[in-house]
Automatic annotation (TrEMBL):
<dbReference type="InterPro" id="IPR009351">
    <property type="entry name" value="AlkZ-like"/>
</dbReference>
<protein>
    <recommendedName>
        <fullName>Winged helix DNA-binding domain-containing protein</fullName>
    </recommendedName>
</protein>
<dbReference type="Pfam" id="PF06224">
    <property type="entry name" value="AlkZ-like"/>
</dbReference>
<feature type="region of interest" description="Disordered">
    <location>
        <begin position="363"/>
        <end position="383"/>
    </location>
</feature>
<feature type="compositionally biased region" description="Pro residues">
    <location>
        <begin position="373"/>
        <end position="383"/>
    </location>
</feature>
Length: 383
């Protein structure tokens, strides 16, 4: 089977990932869109909360930041550590399914960290009991209040202990980040936020069915992709991934000699020419091999190896990085090399979409002095 050209793969992945999809301006469409996007992708990387909101908005043009926050406030979306010890936005149902597959592996690392920071099993138990009691009856706690509950239980949350404890209790499917606050989100009890359905309980109790469910969801929102891409994304061994591929054989097709796709996937369509995608976007992070996304390998250095910077995408290729809007709404685009006039116009339109999402005037300024790539400072991981 001949390899699929990179141009076709990029177009198909933009379409599968809903990048640039318009949803219209009706209140009903805008309200439903954030949940639709996250369900479609299964999970959206979200260690940078504000950037992750735009990851959803970039796939539901016409929605606003307020619309996405409202989906969190309604309990449709939550944010937790479902895989790789990394924060993602997902639905409560998919969070439980993902944790049923990945939490045991991640907890091994957490147990090591407990010992490194001097947390004994009895400390963990006291902290858990205190936090769950503080969150009972539908209470939502901000981070400082969660830390206070640990202190009241005699557990010092300093020296990164608070983060490790919250990660552990999230891996147990006890807590998640939920409703929005002035800064970030508040913690909630997952079962209070969204009780477990019988269908989800069946998946959680059947590891093979759960992994097939997630594989099909991944291919629906990220494919065509290799099994290694999926294994890297979910953080599971390739042997388990291959078994899931075999089980799902009638629903998965070969795109070429190395890539697979979901059989019911829509054909690639002509998406908008240009997009401003956030840091840690699924279009970039959903692949183990990102070489096809860059014109030149050196561009990966300038974009923090294609992972940590907000990126400008033209015809599926990453052509530069951009800054978050300044106080005056200016977005600075730093291209890796000179852009054509048509591409610049398309990027200005993409910036307009971002401004509409943020509900504030924005303007794009393209740095004409393109020179040797410079590595930007790392982004803060955020809660």
């Amino acid at each position: 089977m001949s390899p699929v050209p990179d141009t076709t793969i990029r177009s198909a992945r933009l379409t599968a990932g809903l990048v640039g999809r318009p949803v219209g301006s009706s209140p009903t469409a805008r309200a439903a869109a954030p949940l639709d996007v996250v369900r479609h992708l299964v999970a959206v990387q979200a260690q940078d909360f504000n950037q992750s909101l735009w990851a959803i908005g970039a796939r539901s043009l016409g929605t606003t930041r307020t619309d996405v926050l409202a989906a969190f406030d309604r309990g449709e979306l939550v944010r937790s550590w479902p895989m790789r010890g990394t924060l993602h936005t997902t639905t409560p149902d998919d969070l439980r399914v993902l944790l049923s597959l990945t939490a045991t592996r991640t907890m091994r690392t957490v147990a090591t960290r407990f010992r490194q920071v001097g947390l004994q099993p009895e400390d963990v138990d006291r902290a858990r009991d205190a936090l769950l009691a503080a969150l009972s009856s539908g209470v939502a706690l901000e981070r400082e209040d969660a830390m206070r509950s640990f202190r009241d239980a005699g557990v010092d949350p300093g020296e990164s202990r608070e983060y490790i404890l919250l990660l552990a209790f999230a891996l147990e499917a006890r807590i998640a980040w939920g409703p929005s606050r002035r800064v970030g989100q508040a913690l909630v009890l997952l079962d209070d936020r969204a009780p477990v359905s019988s269908a989800v309980r069946e998946l959680v109790e059947d590891a093979e069915a759960a992994l097939v469910h997630v594989l099909l969801g991944y291919l629906r929102g990220h494919g065509p992709a290799t099994l290694a891409d999926f294994g890297t994304w979910i953080g599971l061994p390739l042997t388990a991934v291959r078994r899931a591929r075999t089980t799902a054989a009638h629903q998965v097709v070969d795109a070429d000699a190395t890539r697979v796709a979901i059989g019911s996937a829509a054909p690639a369509s002509s998406a908008a020419v240009a997009h401003l995608l956030p840091a840690f976007d699924e279009y970039v992070l959903g692949l183990a091999d990102r070489s096809a996304l860059f014109v030149d390998p050196t561009d990966r250095v300038a974009s923090r190896n294609g992972i940590g910077a907000p990126v400008a995408v033209v015809r599926g290729r990453i052509v530069g990085t951009w800054s978050r809007p300044a106080d005056d709404g200016t977005i600075l685009l730093t291209p890796f090399r000179a852009l054509g006039a048509a591409d610049e116009r398309a990027l200005h339109r993409a910036a307009d979409h971002l401004g509409s999402f943020l509900e504030r005037p924005t303007s794009l300024r393209i740095d004409a002095g393109t020179g040797p790539p410079v590595t930007p400072a790392p982004a803060a991981p955020g809660p």
